[in-house]
Amino acid sequence: MKYAIILFFISLNTFYFGQLHTVQDATIFSESFSNAVLMHNEDEILKHIDVDYKKGQLGKLLKGNKEQFINEMLSGFGDQSEEYMNIDYKTITEMTVTSIGNEESSTDNWKVNFQLKIPKNTINISILLIAKKSARKSKLGFIGGIG
């Protein structure tokens, strides 16, 4: 009986909040984000960003400056200089997901590491990917750089 109750609550949680995301879901979403960046498509890039994060950072803080928002999200430490580099995302020629790991033992938060190639340098960045749950669905979205 105890196990039946546990299974009932797991089923209810999955029904109400939607399917929990897997590392495979996070990988597919992250690779889609990389493709949008490589196409230098602002609108497609922004579709991969958490709605509330966009409202706060892009809407309020940066007053709608999409290019600055994306550039800051994708800036990081260069391999050649080992210094923090602000980049123009339109100069990125390669973007690879190098690893994905769960954050803080959560099944729906991942630290996604990317390697970006720009002329004369390689940059490594980490971005937090979260899943927001609401009635019957869960949506993935990036919320910004880590470290």
Fold and architecture overview:
There is one protein chain. 39% of the residues lie in helices and 32% in strands. It is an alpha+beta fold. The protein has a single domain (20-145), classed as Nuclear Transport Factor 2, Chain: A (Roll). The radius of gyration is 17 Å and the shape is globular. The termini are far apart. Mean pLDDT is 82; it is low at 2-18.
Record the SSE blueprint.
Blueprint lengths: L1 H16 L5 H16 L3 H5 L4 H11 L4 H9 L1 E3 L5 E2 L8 E9 L6 E10 L2 E14 L2 E9 L2
Antiparallel strand pairs: 1-2, 1-5, 3-4, 4-5, 5-6
What's the SSE pattern? HHHHHEEEEEE
- The tally of helices reads 5
Structural class determined from secondary elements: alpha+beta
Overall mean pLDDT: 82
Question: Hey, roughly how much beta strand do the residues contain?
Answer: 25-35%
Largest sheet: 6 strands, antiparallel
Rg, Cα atoms, Å: 17 Å
Residue stretches low in confidence (pLDDT < 50, at least 5 long) are 2-18
3D shape: globular
N- and C-termini, Cα separation: 46 Å
Which CATH class applies here?
Answer: Alpha Beta
Number of strands: 6
In percent, how helical is the residue content?
Answer: 25-40%
CATH architecture tag: Roll
Instruction: Provide the CATH topology.
Output: Nuclear Transport Factor 2, Chain: A
